Amino acid sequence: MPERQYRVLFVASHPVQYQAPLFRRLAAHPELDVKVAYCSLRGAEAGYDPEFEATVQWDIPLLEGYAWTHVPNKGSDAETFFGLRNPGLWELIREGEFDAVVCYLIYARASFWISYLAARLAGAAFLFGTDAHSFAARDGRAWKAAVKKVLWRRLFSLADQAMARSTRTREHLLAAGIPESRISLVSSVVDNEWWMKQSARTDRAAVRASWHIPPNAPTVLFCAKLQPWKRPMDVLEAFGKLNRTQAVLVFVGEGPLRQSLERRAEQMGLSSRVRFLGFVNQSRLPAVYAASDVMVLPSEYEPFGLVVNEALCCGCPVIASDRVGATQDLIGPLRTDFIFPCGDVENLAQVLTEAFKEPALLKELGRRAAARMRKWSPEQYVAETVQAVRKAASDKARTVSGKPSDTARQPRSPAEREGLQG
């Protein structure tokens, strides 16, 4: 046991398939005493996802292996400020004797501010972060970007540590005027081991046969919600410029653009070479990546893009637009020419053409991709999170003179914790 242990509350909007394995790892760390507060149980329970335009319930365990509680939502559940209003967070944080509160809610939700004020009054360190690497808004509204430019420095000064989810995010926070000492890089990761093991079990030929695709047909994958900011139409248009009559394009995901994509594929005479698989649950996704030759993520708004992690873990190389946050950390180290200017369909078509010129090199790139992911791992995320908590809680416990403050809580020793629990 370490000399000190930090009691930490993680506040999250709802159970997420990416986050649950990380919570399990954090809960097992000897330096942390972890509890997770969920503002909703959407995802763990079946519910309608408006962006997928489908009822979604993830088919992997999301609530096992760590301590959690559900704080009832008194808000509308909509994507608005009062959509998440969980007044129970106030009592939970004020009375929980936490050394740190790590808030995964966005600041445009009421429950973020409930968590912040409760942590301040309780003397707990408050950590929150972002994966954004620009001021651009998802809906493209210029006034939102202008407001962010003005408010970000003040907003992130509220954090005892601001958690940057990628190198690009860290650079963006520095450019916004956030002191380097207040920024912690906490990498955006997935459960690498699970993805690698599941993809290794894939019968590639059988999966392709289920898609009615020849074993050696060049296969391009788009795996995301069929939403305007994901720009799935760019992939279809670029695919239409490929001079490979055996190539196949596979769309995985649902959303409002599906019918438009199906109509356009028919107009282009590509219906026989385009597959729409719809929503594919987590347990089946490793096989999707393993059966594909390359994935394209052409988004105009993509703060990070965890599908990049998933695909690379499964040995599927990724081509992405320069608006995707994962490009600097995960794609650039493998192939800088696999990053193209967002919206440039001609450029994307050229990248795809070059990628399929030498299939052996593409397969080798897949092997290198999996090796890269071993250095961008859950273990790295846990170490970075612990370091951020340690720094935030320690700084909170000091006054300018270097002595503990009256309101800041000191991390407890094991003996102290046993006494409190007994």
Report on this structure:
It is a single chain. Helices cover 38% and strands 15% of the residues. It contains 16 helices and 15 strands. The strands form three sheets. The chain has a seven-stranded parallel β-sheet. A six-stranded parallel β-sheet has the order 12-11-10-13-14-15, with helices on both faces. Strands 3-4 form a two-stranded antiparallel sheet. The longest helix is centred in the C-terminal third of the chain and has 19 residues, at 378-396. The chain starts with 5 loop residues before the first strand and ends with a helix. 44% of the residues are buried.
Any idea what the shape is? globular
| Quaternary | single chain
Approximately what portion of the residues adopt beta-strand conformation? 15-25%
Total strands: the figure is: 15
Counted up, domains total 2
List the uncertain runs: 403-408, 413-422
Distance between the termini: 18 Å
Mean pLDDT: 90
Q: Taking strands numbered 1, 2, ... along the chain, how are they ordered across the largest sheet?
A: 5-2-1-6-7-8-9
The major pleated sheet works out as: 7 strands, parallel
- Summarize the amount of helix as a percent range: 25-40%
Radius of gyration equals 23 Å
Q: What is CATH's topology name of the largest domain? A: Rossmann fold
CATH class of the largest domain: Alpha Beta
Structural class: alpha/beta
Instruction: Find the CATH superfamily of the largest domain.
Output: Glycogen Phosphorylase B
At CATH's second level, what is the architecture of the largest domain? Answer: 3-Layer(aba) Sandwich
Number of helices: 16
